[in-house]
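Quick start: what a row looks like.
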Amino acid sequence: MSTRPPAGTDDPRRNLPSVDTLLEPALVSRFGHRRVTFEARRLLKEQRLAAGAEVLNPDASRPDALRTELALRLGLGDIVPALNATGVILHTNLGRAPWSPEARRKANAAMGVCTIELDRRTGRRGRRGQGVEDRLCALYGAEAALVVNNCAAAVLLALSAAAAGRDVLVSRGELVEIGGGFRVPEVIACSGARLVEVGTTNRTHLADYQGALTDRVAAILRVSPSNFRQIGFVSRPDLHALAALPVPLIVDAGSGAVSTSVAMDHEDAVTRALDCGAALVCASGDKLLGGPQAGLLFGRRELIEAARAHPLFRALRPDKVTLAALEGTLDDHLKGVGSLVDRAIATPKTELADAVAGWLARLPEHVSARCVEVEGEVGGGSLPGRTWPSVALAIRSPGAVLLRQRLLEGELPVVGYIREDELYLDARTIIPFGEGERLLGCLLDAIGRC
């Protein structure tokens, strides 16, 4: 529908500036003529629609105001480094796990020409991801392994290769939806398998699986609850018992915790599922493992090779930078170094309190702030319901909303959260990564712009 104003009227849309009026040389030089023009046209279209609906703010539609808005949209739309002061270690909006120095080093090296599919002994084509697969088997004790681009892809590939055209048994208590719209029934349907529900929402017994076994059943799927917990009158069979049934057990183990992780006691791990006899196990690379986004698939060699030969694998395989970063992450674990996620979880509360006290002492006198005890969490769908004691800087003045916005708009954005008119900056996701001084610098800069 046209937004052109009728001729001969004083319609406010006629007062809007032209696209050329908004194309400041500095913006064009920084972002390119094509992108600035595209955003300017989109902004003006929004203004015309607002005017047509009689909700146009005349002040906001002035050329200078529109240029400011255009600059903000262009400048704040890029992916840039940020400081996570939310206390959520694996913050999905902030890229989940921060990579270790070794993972970053390997990723940087892979950005140019690299040996992603070269056998250096023969000079011929090698197998993509061979080094990562070997490391995964060494770390988790798996017979074979495969890497795809995320855990949902690993589940989809496992089901497609092992159960397409046949039935898959799933407890009704595990027919979950997790972040991003990942719904277990829909993934099963996508794989070409047929879902057969067993048990009830809160209690599923071994007999429920045994009673549903037929010649059409290809596998049992055990799903990690990921971002929620069931408590109270609940029950589900042990992995050993499920793995002993006469069909393959596929386990979505979730976060990919390893035996050296400080969170190992609180998460069903890949190694436990494999030791119990699971045929295939799926996990994430960017959660408790502390690496890049990746889907990790472990299990029996014949099933892994069937997944590798499936046409979906080509569409789901990761790029060279992801594989290189995963190599670095796995090297850290194999050497006993662990991940930055482990470091964030394990940092003592006293160390965090000392850091926050230091921030507080260096704030300007007119700033109203205090040191408070809070609870942090892992996040990213890992360890739901589990929290860690932490310490935060809570700032009341200048105003929490304005200060939060100034921190987000800074050259190095800082992300905190507001609670009861105070802006909280949690030290657990700052101090373990050596970002204390940078946070303070960003905070002082933002206060100066309030």
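That is the whole record. The chain is about 40% helix and 20% strand. The chain has three domains: 21-70, 83-94+343-448, 101-337.
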